[in-house]
Specification:
about 350 residues, alpha/beta, Rossmann fold
């Protein structure tokens, strides 16, 4: 009996040591926010929140789900509509305000929407890993938004997983697409001939999520978002807009439905289910632009380059000092190139 108790005590000590060691490891890892960043975050928490949604909002019905959208109109003449599709686990507020303003100031109606499972769109509570939704289903969500706004054709811009959804939308609904812009994305994320998504970066993101997500609270959720952006910046050297990131995180928490912890696995399953789009991408005939950062630590630039090589007459923009993000200092360059791609469509009509 004494031997059994002794073994139990030793086992308990070992388990406790492992748990405590894991906690220390997780909390000591990941990017450390600077004092300046912490001060900015604390100020945002204390101050009144600005209104970050200023356009017309509504819900589109897609496969029985409500998909939230915001439509922002230009002040002057309307040149066309642009549908923005965000990346994995991210909602519509993830698009930088400066990026949106540059498009609306250029005369375009900009529509951004929450993916199913994020933001104000319906969260798929009865999701089944044996019967997941696909990127094609998520592309149909975008079509539903265009239908709700009675827009027949639009310029489609997608970032990361959103680029994959934009590709699906262009493949399945080419009659609705004026131009396609795929940013830091892939035509087949599991291509055996290319470097896969960085497992090191993925592990860093997981540890950061554990570090800040377990305890919860407004400040930790902001810390999680800022730290994740630092990780995705990689070796690129530019300042993040910590104030804007903090504001949209707080806006989601205080004025919307907050963050869905379970949506990441759903979106990951949708990406895996989609497989390769290489054969279909070769058949696209709309003006297409592929943009990728040379310092992208998450989806290697070779994925973007392979897409550009496959799609007929695709234009490309390979950017120095850009990670898995659209930094403010490169926003002008990115938008100018996108607008040039829009003009290609106008020239094709002549």
């Amino acid at each position: 009996m004494k031997t059994i108790k002794k073994i139990a005590v030793i086992t308990g000590i070992i388990v406790l040591s492992v748990v405590l060691g894991s906690i220390v490891y997780i909390y000591s890892s990941g990017p450390t926010l600077t004092k300046e960043n912490n001060q900015i975050i604390e100020n945002v928490i204390k101050e009144p929140l600005p209104e970050v949604i200023k356009g017309k909002t509504g819900f589109a019905k897609s496969q029985g789900l409500n998909i939230w959208y915001e439509s922002i109109s230009p002040k002057d003449s309307l040149k066309g509509a642009v549908l923005l599709i965000m990346g994995i686990s991210n909602d519509a507020l993830g698009w930088p305000q400066k990026f949106i303003y540059k498009l609306t100031n250029s005369g375009y109606q900009v529509i951004r929407c929450d993916h199913r499972g994020t933001g104000m769109s319906d969260w798929v509570k009865n999701w089944d890993k044996n019967n997941p939704y696909s990127l094609s289903d998520m592309a149909d969500d975008g079509i539903a938004v265009l239908n709700s706004l009675e827009i027949q054709k639009a310029h489609i811009i997608g970032i990361s997983m959103g680029g994959m959804i934009a590709q699906e939308l262009a493949i399945n609904h080419p009659e609705r697409v004026l131009t396609l812009t795929s940013i830091m994305s892939s035509g087949y994320i599991e291509d055996p001939e290319l470097t896969k998504i960085s497992s090191e970066v993925a592990w860093k993101l997981i540890k950061t999520a554990l570090k800040y997500g377990i305890v919860g609270g407004e400040k930790n959720m902001i810390n999680l978002n800022v730290a994740s952006r630092i990780i995705l910046r990689g070796n690129a050297d530019y300042e993040l807009n910590v104030k804007e990131i903090s504001e949209y995180v707080l806006y989601n928490i205080r004025k919307r439905k907050g963050y869905n912890a379970g949506v990441s696995k759903q979106h990951q399953a949708a990406v895996r289910l989609s497989g390769s789009r290489y054969a279909e991408l070769k058949l696209l005939d709309m003006p297409t632009l592929i943009i990728h950062g040379k310092s992208d630590p998450f989806i290697p630039i070779e994925h973007g380059k392979k897409c550009a090589a496959l799609i007929p007459n695709a234009d490309s923009l390979w950017l120095d000092n850009m990670g898995h993000d659209i930094p403010e200092n490169l926003s002008d360059t990115v938008v100018v190139k996108i607008l040039t791609n829009f003009k290609r469509w106008q020239e094709d009509r002549k």
